[in-house]
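name: query_chain
kind: protein
chains: 1
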Amino acid sequence: MNKKIAIIGAGLFGITAALELSKYHDVDLYEKNDDILKAASGINQFRLHRGYHYPRSKKTALSSLKGEANFTRVFGEALIQGTENYYCIAKNDSYTTSKQYISFCKEIGLEFKEVDLGLIDKSNIDLCIKANERLIDSVKLKSICSNNLAKSKVNLLLNTKASFDILDEYDFVVLCTYSNTNNFLKIKPLLQRDYQFELVEKIIVKLPSKFNHRSIVILDGPFMCVDPYGKTPYFLMGNVTHAIHSSNVGRFPKIQSEFKKLLDAGVIKNPPITNFKDFITSTVKFIPEISKAKHFGSMFTIRTVLPYKEKTDERPTIVRKIDKKIFTVFSGKLITCVDASKDLVSYIA
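structure:
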């Protein structure tokens, strides 16, 4: 018998859950913004993590690798072909040695080849491998999501903020709201849990042509990465230290007033607040040519992770039933979204 289900949040996990559940049930998908994929699902590094990034959490690496087939089946047309993807281990301050990293890749089953990459400064890099990984075209990903929703039986409700009051209308409610999960549960504080909230900046830069089609990640500590930004001529930079403008552990993110207009607002040219210079300064010793970067703009969002996981940096995908009607879906890796949706189907069947 069909159930009536509300999915809250039209990020990638909410959309995927809605599409999968709508094959068997009646589904309403609530989104408070005027479009889909406007928060963290639309503001991230857009790398389809297969596990290379997580040498301290084999569980995260294995779940990422496991999720690849299902993700590719649904969203394969959004994957960018022809990029070169490199992972480097820093000589100093890395939590993982080169030897440990190679052992990790072999144990997990991640393909790699040790290479010399001219863009990096070998005096500060101990190991560079070419990895079998791909990037995501965010524009194409959104197009696929929109088309799949339009062809489905999902009732998409944009500009509609769901509250706890809707529970009576549905058999089940699924929260795919990431940093906003506790907001929905305000009148049920015992169902809330603590998270670590990070107000992050992703910077978009113009780089010399020798960077074209190349993704470079420096591991495993307070380092950085640079990736082609979809099919644009620009690049996206992440930074473990300088991307984070503020961080707190608790039920809700603490957001300074000057950031409120910047959050989830897409690419902001000439942002009034930016750590661009710190991004570049910290990266130059590993990738000298990054000094030629020109700042095109920045994106800001709230990244949410489980607290006190610095030792392993684990990013699990967790589907939980928190009471008789409410499920939560929490994850830090896009690649596991289809697997999570299938878990939901099995729980609700």
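note: The chain has one domain: 4-348.
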